[in-house]
Amino acid sequence: MNYQNKIANNWVNIDWKKANSKLADLQYEVLKAHRKGDENLVLTTQHALIRSFAARHLAVRKVTSSQGGNTPGIDGKIYNTDKEKFLAVLVVKNLKNYKADLVRRVYIPRLDGKKRPLGIPTIKDRVVQTLHLFALSPIAEEQADVRSYGFRMHHGVHDCVTYLNLVCSSYTATRRYVLGADIEQFFPSVSPMVVRQYSNK
């Protein structure tokens, strides 16, 4: 009996606890390979993770249950039923010839009256992105700065606020200022030529 059959052969009966445990094991294998400095082993373990039944199911669940799960991409598809979700898991099993679709461009109103462009990938592309996130996050977390809180697993703005409060309120603190900075309209300012150059690599 293979691992797929051990979890379930349909969406309703999936053992999510077992799936999460298997994903954690695979991510630890990626981390061990990274710590050994064996790049080939890293790629092998990451490839195994991305193809795994557990990771694919968890990626589909993460995307379809998110706030944007009912927002389609350029293909107009969303996965609402259990059958559609289970089929989505099968679709992303072999990514050898995978090529991302174009994003659906929408414009979001800004407070200043202007509109901000937003690209919405298809559900399938979001699932593939999540799979690669699963494969990259063990190494990213290993190398991340200890005081980095943005876009980090199990980190958030409240952690940052707590740390700043501890630093600034200490009677021995020599740092009394917090500098907030924002790069205004960064993405619209990036040259389209630069975007094409890096997207083709």
Would you give an account of this structure?
By secondary structure, the protein is mainly alpha-helical. The chain has one domain (3-154). Helix content is 53%, strand content 6%. The chain has 9 helices and 2 strands; from the N terminus they run H-H-H-H-H-E-E-H-H-H-H. It has helices at 3-7, 16-36, 39-51, 53-64, 82-91, 123-143, 157-169, 186-189, 192-199, and strands spanning 104-109, 115-120. The protein has a two-stranded antiparallel sheet. Strand 1 (104-109) and strand 2 form a beta hairpin. Helix 2 crosses helix 4 (53-64), helix 2 (16-36) crosses helix 6 and helix 3 packs antiparallel against helix 6 (123-143). The longest helix is centred in the N-terminal third of the chain and has 21 residues, at 16-36. The two termini are 40 Å apart. The relative contact order is 0.10.
Summary?
The chain has 201 residues and is mainly alpha-helical. The protein has helices spanning 3-7, 16-36, 39-51, 53-64, 82-91, 123-143, 157-169, 186-189, 192-199, and strands spanning 104-109, 115-120. The chain has one domain.
